[in-house]
Amino acid sequence: DGGITQSPKYLFRKEGQNVTLSCEQNLNHDAMYWYRQDPGQGLRLIYYSQIVNDFQKGDIAEGYSVSREKKESFPLTVTSAQKNPTAFYLCASSISTMEAFFGQGTRLTVV
Amino acid sequence: QKEVEQNSGPLSVPEGAIASLNCTYSDRGSQSFFWYRQYSGKSPELIMFIYSNGDKEDGRFTAQLNKASQYVSLLIRDSQPSDSATYLCAVREETSGSRLTFGEGTQLTVNP
Fold it and tell me: Does A53 lie at the interface with B, CB-CB under 8 angstroms?
């Protein structure tokens, strides 16, 4: 089955800890995106990548890092510099200017 | 000014009525526009996309685009309780490397 897989579904982070959220797609899409969603809010763009080995900052990149070493994978690391990381994280992919499809999301909580 | 703005909600309509959702955007170079539906706790799913000025219909949904006014809307006819969700407008901003920017969303409730 083609699609976008995010893991884990739930993640708990301790204060000062880095955590990495996984996003894999087998749709052969060039572009991939990471969004953050807080309760009752819209989606805010963290990072996006149009091509392998290249990515751009979105509106709220501080405290996050990404890599795009393979077309299929776009992992997001939430670093200790992100002071308020508790949120719902969504990964998406698309063919260039076409519509984006989303994974099931990762719910991150600081404990 | 936000790049993508949606009419503030929440919006409540009776079953069978028409729900109207509106969105404005700031990037005049934008060419691609999308409406997503998001149920509580779930990821967004695509409802409609529109690239050309005018109306595009798909079942009970109609998307309308006016590039001169930088305005895109979604009409839901014969609204059903199952349509109750948050509707997100998304715009692909060509001047920013084709980034996909979302509005804040409008929460719709359809009352039986």
Answer: no
Calculate the dihedral angle through the C-alpha atoms of A95, A54, A73, A77, rounding to the nearest 10 degrees: -130
Residues of chain B with Cβ-Cβ distance to A97 below 8 Å are: 31-32, 92, 94, 98
Contacts of B59 (CB under 8 A, 6+ apart): none
Question: What pLDDT, on a 0 to 100 scale, did the predictor assign at position B9?
Answer: 81
Q: In the predicted model, what is the mean pLDDT of residues B55-81? A: 97
Q: Determine contact: B26 vs chain A, CB below 8 A.
A: no
Tell me whether A21 touches chain B (CB under 8 Å). Answer: no
Instruction: Find out whether A31 and A49 touch, Cβ atoms under 8 Å.
Output: yes
Long-range contacts of A39-44 (CB under 8 A, 24+ apart): A41/B104, A41/B105, A42/B6, A42/B88, A42/B102, A42/B103, A42/B104, A42/B105, A43/A90, A43/B44, A43/B88, A43/B102, A44/B102
Residue B22 has pLDDT above 80, yes or no: yes
User: H helices within chain A, ranges in order?
Assistant: none
Would you state the pLDDT for residue A1? 62
For residue range A32-71, list pLDDT tens digits in order. 999 999 998 899 999 999 999 999 999 999 999 999 999 9
Query: Is residue B16's pLDDT more than 90?
Result: yes
Asked whether the predicted pLDDT for residue A96 surpasses 80, the reply is no
Tokens 């009419």 belong to residue? B7
- Cα atoms in the Cβ-side hemisphere of radius 13 Å centred on A6: 26
